[in-house]
Amino acid sequence: MRRRVGRYVFIAVSFIAVFCMAYVSTRAQTGQVSVPGFGKSAAKPLPPGGPAPRTADGHPDLSGVWFPGRIGREDLTAEGDPARLQFDPKVTPEEKPPYQPWAAERVKKLSTLDAEILRPSVNCMPRGVPGMFITNPYPVQLVQTATQLIQLNELNNNFRIIPTDARAHSKDPDPAFNGESVAHWDGDTLVIDTIAIDERTWNNFVGWFHSDQEHVVERLSRPSMNYLTYQVTIEDPKVLTKPWTSAPRTWSLGHEQLQEYYCTNNREEEALKSLRELTEAPKK
Amino acid sequence: MKHVVKVVLPILSLFVIGANVLPVFAHHGFQAEYDGSKVIYITGTLTKLEWENPHAYFWVEAKDASGKVTTWQFEGASPIAVKRSGTVRTDFTSNIGKTVTVRGTPGKDGTPKGAAETIKLPDGREVVVGGKRFFGEGKGGSE
């Protein structure tokens, strides 16, 4: 009996010893948490900058080069800084997509690696609407005329032209990545209504697919010279149980030109496929 | 001791493998392909740059203690984002053939590749070439 107890003690001590060695080994491979700069950027939110400019017809002028977040430019060292985010989920949390049960099941089945491989952006496809705002880390340029809002997206050198004369949608428009957008002014807010969005776009990076019945309503305003506020409501009676409204998203005024950005030959896709072969059993 | 061999060792093996190998996937592409819970520093000769969309790539030949040379492939952010953060193409091209140190996170597939955060140049500057890739021990990151 004594020998058996001693054996169990030996086993337990061995277990703890090996675990500790493994833990120490793992720790030894890691270094400092991050380089100075990451999360400690000197980037500061822009001041309001005075009242928003207005066009001759009295509407706020939304024109400008706009960067996501509040610093008015790109700064990789600001990753992790709430000032670089379109919104701070701790301050304005967003509801999860209210999927219908079948849709929730479909999304749930996606492993994170599946989602990475299947997300349209890894295939360099357009982000579409509302992706060109809510999943877009690159700047956009808005050019406002008396009758149109022209949105130039640096991401994939993509654009959309939105009539702002309160016209109705055309009858049964063809599907397109950016859909068909029409707009009207609601006071100082431009309301953009979009339908006929190509079903290959996702509304986030983790599998939020949509149907041909998706209806997107975006609200754009310029509360001050340096800031643009964007909020979107997504209706999709085939996929969602109710409309989903985003948190107000903040974009800030930049002072540089858009550059060329084409996503081509993305090596991530192949690397991710190889990784799946290594880490996951084939799925039925 | 038979118990140790038949029962405890397999359990221990699973535990150790699970703690060190199983990937913790997050939703960002970099975090699926690279291990954001580990940081690596690779010092070697900068040999090549591809300053192209969607992401910049560069290669470093590093020699270990035995003299064996390994070619590491590093992926940065998009050239536009890197440039806007203060690092320009000539920071690389003027240092081809020279010794640099890259800080990044390793690939999960075991090949010599990494997602780069910074590169330390021969003139002593440590410049940004990618976003935040290392999120601390055991963390895959949340963005």
Provide a descriptive summary of the structure in words.
The complex is a heterodimer of chains A (284) and B (143). With 284 residues, chain A is an alpha+beta fold. Chain A has five helices and ten strands. Chain A has helices spanning 2-29, 101-109, 112-118, 128-134, 267-279; strands spanning 64-68, 140-144, 148-153, 158-163, 180-186, 189-195, 215-224, 227-235, 244-245, 249-254. In chain A, strands 1, 2, 3, 4, 5, 6, 7, 8, 9 and 10 form a ten-stranded antiparallel sheet that branches. In chain A, a hairpin with a 4-residue loop joins strand 3 (148-153) and strand 4. In chain A, helix 3 runs antiparallel to helix 5 (267-279). Chain B is built from four helices and six strands, in the order ααβββααβββ. A five-stranded mixed β-barrel of chain B has the order 1-2-3-5-4. Chain B starts with a helix and ends in a 15-residue tail after the last strand. Chain B has one domain: Nucleic acid-binding proteins (OB fold (Dihydrolipoamide Acetyltransferase, E2P), Beta Barrel), CATH 2.40.50. The relative contact order of chain B is 0.21. By secondary structure, chain B is of the alpha+beta class. Classes of the chains: A alpha+beta (284), B alpha+beta (143). At the A-B interface, helix 1, helix 3 and helix 5 of A face helix 1, helix 2 and helix 3 of B.
